[in-house]
Each structure stands twice: as C-alpha cells, then as structure tokens.
Specification:
The complex is a heterodimer. Chain A is built from 8 helices and 9 strands. By secondary structure, chain A is an alpha/beta fold. In chain A, helix 3 packs across helix 4, helix 3 crosses helix 5 and helix 4 packs across helix 5. The longest helix of chain A is centred in the C-terminal third of the chain and has 16 residues. Chain A starts with a strand and ends with a helix. The mean pLDDT of chain A is 82. Chain B has one domain. Helix content of chain B is 72%, strand content 0%. Chain B contains 13 helices and no strands. The longest helix of chain B has 28 residues. The radius of gyration of chain B is 20 Å and the shape is globular. Chain B starts with a helix and ends with a helix. The model of chain B has no long low-confidence stretch (mean pLDDT 90). Classes of the chains: A alpha/beta, B mainly alpha. At the A-B interface, helix 1 and helix 3 of A face helix 2 and helix 5 of B.
Chain lengths: 247, 278
C-alpha cells in the first residue's frame, strides 16, 4: 500500500448542539449538570484512500462536512470513530496568516508562522528568500504586518505555508487569494508539487479549478460519502445532481 | 513522562511564541523593556510607604546578612509574587486568546500557556537581576547563593506553569475563571508573608492557640500555602544570605512537580477537544 498517501477509515464525527449551553459557573451550578445537548453527526462513516502524488478534491454543497473532514485531516478535530492515517509530513493551510502578530515585521512573522507550521529555524532561513520573493512583498518585509494591505497579508501567509513543503498538503478555499497574477503563481506551485510526487487535498466550490487541478475527487452530501474516484466522473455526478434538484 | 519528550520538537515554536509575547508587548513604547520594571517599583513604593512607614511593620534584620531595609526585604518576596501573578493572569487567557490559531493550525497546544509563563519569567529575570545588584550595593553577600536562587526560580516557574495549564483549560470551559483568578490572586498576596513577616502570624497563632479546641493552629493552616514556602526560600537566600530549611526545599519541590504533573495531565486530556469547545 505504498501508493496510498492518506487512508481514511470509517471516520465519523459528531458535534454537540447545545440547547442550553453552560459557559458560566453560575449556570452550571444553578442547573446542577453540565448542559443539555444533542449530537449532530457532521461526518458519517467516511472511508476512502488518497493515492500518493494525486491532487484530491473534496466537493459538495455547503454544510456537507467538507471542512470538518479537512479539519480532521489536519488534526484540529479528532474523529469520534474511525481513524485517519497518513504517510509522510502533513501540513494544513486552512487559513493563511493565522498567528501573525500585527506589531511584528514581515520577516519576524515568517519565522513565527513557519515554526507554528512545523518548520525549523534552519529550514525557514534557507527558504526565506524564496518565501519573500513568492509573496512579492520584498519592499515591505521589515515593516510591521499591520501596515500591509489585505492582499499582501494573505500572500505572505500563503507563501510561508506553501514553502513548508510537506508530503501532503491540505488546503481549504485559500486559492481565491490575491490577484490573477498571484493565483497563476499558486497554480504553478501546485503543479510543481505534483511533479515532485507530493499529494494535495483541497476543498473548493469552484468546479472549474477543481476539474483543472484534481485527478481524484470525493463528493460529500450531508456528512455522507456519495462517490469517490476519478475527478471528472465525480464532478459530473455532483453537477448532474445539482441540476436535477433545480429542475 | 513521554509527554515532556513530545515538547522537544516544539521547543523552537515555544521560543518563537515567547519572543512574540516579549517583543510584541512593549512595541511602540518609548521606554520599551523598562516598563516591566515600573510595575514592581510602583508597588514597592506604595507598600513601603503604607506598611513600612505608616503601619511601621519592621521585619527582623537579615540574619546573618544584617541587612535592614524594608523596601529590599519587601522586594525579595514581591518580585517572585509578581511573576507568579503575571504568569497565571496571562496563562489563563493563553488558549482563549489564541482561539483563532487553535482552530486553524495543528501544533502542540501546551506551548501556548508555556510561552506566557516564559515571557513572564523573562521579565522577572530582569527584575531579579536589578534586585541582586541593589542588595549587593547595600552590603548583601548574595553572589554565592545565586545558583540556588536560580533553582528556586525554576521551581516556582514549574509550579506556575502547572497551575497555568489547569487555569487555561478551565477558562476554555468557563470564562469565569479569568475573573475568578484575579480576585483569588488579590487575596492570596495578603495570605502570603510578602508585605509583613511570617513571624507576625506566628505571634497571633500562639496567642489564639488551637482552633476550636483542636490541635490545629492558625500557623499550620497558614503554612499550607505553597507560596509561603517559596517566599521563605527567596528571603533566606537573597535577604538573609543563609541556607533555607531543607523541609522548605522539599515542600517547594513537591508542589512544583505535583502541580506540573497534574496540570499537564489535565491539559493533555482536554487538548484534543479545544478546537471544538472554543
């Protein structure tokens, strides 16, 4: 099974929907118990394999559990049942620039953010030029990031994350950042990724970019896996179901 | 303690987050790092005026150092206390304040409270350095005791970290914790021999005798406070220049290890659900 990058095995994830939530001691003591809740299953018994070196898309309507699954992959959430195993270093890019400190300079933030994403100081130093160049904020790299435009902010965040160079990259809707030129560069970077045999797992609502980038896809609906396989047929099935609903 | 070994790969992150706290804190201030000295100095002036000058609290001169300065005697207990209070106040918010980060990136979450304790310890080290210089100028013979001062500082930092772990997790579930702890700390400082000598408590305790006819004395209850023992050690080393009781060392060691182990255990049990609960 050396060609499997990520193995998702019967993963289920529930959230507690609180009818009455106790976030203060008063309400806990007054009511005498923790809280009243109902379980909501955001993911139900999902199993699939992501082949190594593939670009894997997760598609589905809003609320279908794509982001929850992505967070489970990123080890931010932990599934109630089932397991997720992966081979090689995994990095997740669920939001770019999280953890930036506004008063610190771009350069200081590269080191801070890089270490949050799991890079060592040596790795960051060796990639510093590349990160700065990719982000296109050379002139402002020693300015505090609070003075950055929102575009510069996300570009820097993206440049750091993509230079972590993991074996598996998990990406959430962050492709929509920056101008057309920057998007073009990101797209190229993803292709380099693929050529290097790395795996990318991404979520997007943009079927155009999914179908051009991905070779495999999984379609989720209300927490259940509907179809998984080659991107084209999965996307087609998904789009067909949408047009069927609207008819 | 396999948990500690998991911290090793995160040490650079810990250093970077600590530096973020330290650098970010005094950005855009004229005096920068000097501000961290202002708060203890202001408290020293207030307490010296009120308790040393008006209330006339006179702690025994340092034995055998012979030092007799209320302000310096005060600082020997006050600086460790301020560190402890700062570490808890910052640590309790370390998870809630970084909710965005926790929900977006995976990393070893325990570095968040640890970095707060680390940044408080960094400022504290400065303050202690100034205190040691001041003590030496007025004739204290502190230098030979410095290695032991560093050890007890480390013990207090470990104790503070353990308590901060528990508080940070509690604050995620109940936001009351942060307000609760600031009141607790206000009371706790007066229940610790910081602005008055412990001998005054012993006097009162002897006068009252066993409480409610039992052999339990006021002093016994008073010394259950771990900070009592920490402050005693700091005063013995810095102000008196003598070796503290071995029992004090053991009690501090036990509290430090106990709090850290319990804190790390509670933290570990809760860290997986942090992203959901926040």
């Amino acid at each position: 099974m050396s060609d499997i990058a990520v193995h998702v095995d019967q993963v289920s994830k529930s959230f507690r929907m609180y009818k009455e939530r106790n976030q203060t001691l008063k309400s806990t003591i007054m009511r005498g118990r923790r809280s009243v809740h109902e379980d909501f299953w955001a993911l139900k018994d999902i199993s699939f394999d992501v082949p190594a070196g593939s670009t894997f898309g997760l598609i589905g309507s809003n609320g279908s559990g794509k982001s929850t699954l992505l967070k489970c992959l990123a080890k931010i959430y932990f599934p109630n049942k089932g397991s997720i195993t992966h081979r090689g270093k995994l990095a997740a890019m669920l939001e770019v620039g999280s953890g930036f400190h506004h008063e610190l300079s771009g350069r200081e933030n590269i080191y801070l953010n890089g270490s949050i994403l799991g890079m060592s100081k040596k790795e960051i130093s060796s990639k510093l030029d590349e990160i700065v160049e990719f982000s296109g904020v050379e002139q402002f790299i020693d300015q505090p990031v609070k003075n950055y435009s929102s575009g510069m902010y996300v570009r820097l965040g993206f440049a750091i994350a993509i230079n972590v160079e993991p074996d598996i990259l998990v990406v959430d809707e962050v492709l929509a950042v920056g101008d057309a030129e920057f998007q073009e560069r990101c797209f190229k970077k993803f292709q380099d990724f693929k050529k290097a045999g790395r795996t990318v797992i991404l979520v997007s609502h943009d079927m155009g970019s999914i179908s051009t980038m991905c070779d495999h896809a999984a379609w989720l609906r209300q927490g259940e896996l509907v179809q998984v396989g080659p991107a084209k047929s999965t996307i087609k099935a998904y789009l067909d179901s949408l047009s069927l609903e609207s008819d | 303690m396999s948990y500690l070994s998991e911290l090793v790969p995160s040490r650079e992150l810990l250093v970077n987050l600590t530096m973020r706290e330290i650098r970010g804190k005094y950005k855009r201030t004229v005096f920068g790092q000097l501000w961290s000295l202002v708060n203890p100095l202001a408290l020293m002036l207030i307490y010296t005026f009120v308790f040393g000058f008006i209330f006339r609290i006179t702690p025994a001169p340092g034995d055998p150092s012979g030092l007799n300065f209320f302000a310096l005697w005060l600082l020997c207990g006050l600086l460790p206390w301020i560190f402890f209070a700062n570490a808890l106040n910052a640590g309790v918010n370390s998870l809630v304040g970084n909710a965005g980060l926790i929900q977006k990136v995976y990393f070893n979450r325990i570095v968040l409270p640890l970095s707060q304790v680390g940044s408080a310890a960094y400022n504290w080290s400065f303050e202690m350095l100034v205190l040691v210089v001041a003590l030496s100028i007025v004739g204290g013979f502190v230098l030979p005791w410095l290695p032991f001062v560093v050890i007890v500082m480390a013990l207090l930092a470990i104790f503070g970290a353990g308590v901060a772990f528990i508080l940070a997790v509690a604050n995620v579930h109940f936001r009351d914790t942060q307000w609760f702890i600031s009141i607790i700390l206000q009371m706790w400082i007066y229940l610790t021999p910081i602005i008055y000598p412990a001998s005054m408590v012993t006097e009162q305790s002897d006068r009252v005798g066993g409480l409610f006819g039992s052999p339990v004395t006021l002093e016994f209850i008073y010394t259950l406070n771990p900070m009592y023992h920490f402050v005693e050690i700091f005063r013995n080393l810095l102000y008196d220049n003598r070796w503290p009781d071995s029992s004090s060392w053991l009690i501090c060691l036990a509290w430090a290890i106990g709090a850290f182990v319990v804190g790390a255990w509670i933290f570990r049990r809760n860290e997986k659900t942090l992203a959901e609960v926040l």
